[in-house]
Amino acid sequence: MSMFLDTAKIQVKAGKGGDGMVAFRREKYVPNGGPWGGDGGRGGDVIFVVDEGLRTLMDFRYNRHFKAQSGEKGMTKGMHGRGAEDLIVRVPQGTTVRDAETGKVITDLIEHGQRFIVAHGGRGGRGNIRFATPKNPAPEISENGEPGQERELLLELKVLADVGLVGFPSVGKSTLLSVITSAKPKIGAYHFTTIVPNLGMVRTQSGESFAVADLPGLIEGASQGVGLGTQFLRHIERTRVILHVIDMSASEGRDPYEDYLAINKELESYNLRLMERPQIIVANKMDMPDSAENLEEFKKKLAANYDEFEELPQIFPISSLTKQGLATLLDATAELLDKTPEFLLYEESDMEDEAYYGFDEEAPAFEISRDDDATWVLSGDKLEKLFTMTNFDRDESIMKFSRQLRGMGVDEALRARGAKDGDLVRIGSFEFEFVD
């Protein structure tokens, strides 16, 4: 089984805030001591940290649920509960994080040590010391901790490479990678020997260095799922230069120029923006019979399809086997890299809006619906959060929640919808009677 995994779906849940405490001073010689319950501690965040030592998302194959710890409850003497430690999740360089529900990109993690909070922990609930007023100097009110953020995420690994090798199977991409870098990809005389991307570092004679990715072979129809499909083409999205490797010996009976057109069509079908990247055509296997004649024919067909003022792609005849022409190819690649800027990987429309963890002022505070059993159902982020943070073990907290609902206009809205005395109202799993 391949140990390479470049996609994963996981669930993360930040820690809940600790509950606030109801307590009173009961010391000798301190009359009417008053409230003394402290606040709960903050829940832990779930944080992604880039680790350059990781090369795959295999760690997420079996471990798909990540939950941070909750904060400690508030204590007597007005002491706060301890905040929970954040949960650190290590991911490889080049990991794109998307929201599974919306498909929007949350963050793109590419630098070693880069950190990003993917789920925020809830704040601690307030203790009764916070609710003391001149009218109510000894409140028996406290809050439960705020729930931590919970979300489902899609992780995509797109390897960090400056140059990508593309081409049909068995054109010599793996062999080329093995002779220009220290990488040791599997090499075999059959199609789809390479079934995962391979990465290597090149150092030219002039001292320039860059990373090269060898991608599993494409074939015609890959964008419709033929062969290995385009499942590994995401790894070429970060590259700035594409080396298009072509078997110029036509050893498998295919026309080199038709191969060139077919692969470009598959790149375009996968992502139109891949065609913006500069290409260098690598005419491989020039040590084979008929390669020179095929190269001349290839150049004629290529020139015929370009206008007079269009710049033709550079063509470099090489032989990976005899290492002919490699130094010239690598120098030209390094020179092209120097003048090629980074390509914007994601459009603004792909990115999730800047996260805001308060309430949307424009969003309705609550919604009213009705179940088949005639029960009125209240929902809405703000209302449900107030409900979750209410301590229903204390009568004063229940009365406070009731006042909050009335202040939000829930009573009036229910009355306007036709609610009558004795009707059941449900929030989550909690039910109570409506009193007109």
How are the SSEs placed, and which strands pair?
Elements lengths: L6 E7 L32 E5 L14 E3 L19 E5 L3 E5 L5 E5 L5 E5 L30 E8 L5 E4 L6 H8 L17 E6 L5 E6 L26 E7 L8 H15 L8 E6 L6 H14 L9 E4 L8 H13 L28 E4 L5 E4 L1 H8 L6 H14 L1 H8 L6 E4 L2 E4 L3
Parallel strand pairs: 1-3, 2-4, 9-11, 9-12, 12-13, 13-14, 16-17
Antiparallel strand pairs: 1-8, 2-7, 5-6, 5-8, 10-11, 15-16, 17-18
Order of helices and strands: EEEEEEEEEHEEEHEHEHEEHHHEE
Q: What spatial order of strands do you see in the largest sheet?
A: 10-11-9-12-13-14
* Helix content class: 10-25%
Give the termini separation.
66 Å
Number of strands: 18
Principal-axis shape equals elongated
Average pLDDT for all residues: 88
Q: Percent of residues in beta strands?
A: 15-25%
Largest β-sheet summary: 6 strands, mixed
* Class derived from helix and strand content: alpha/beta
Number of helices: 7
Radius of gyration from the CA trace? 32 Å
Q: Which consecutive residue ranges, at least 5 long each, have pLDDT under 50?
A: none
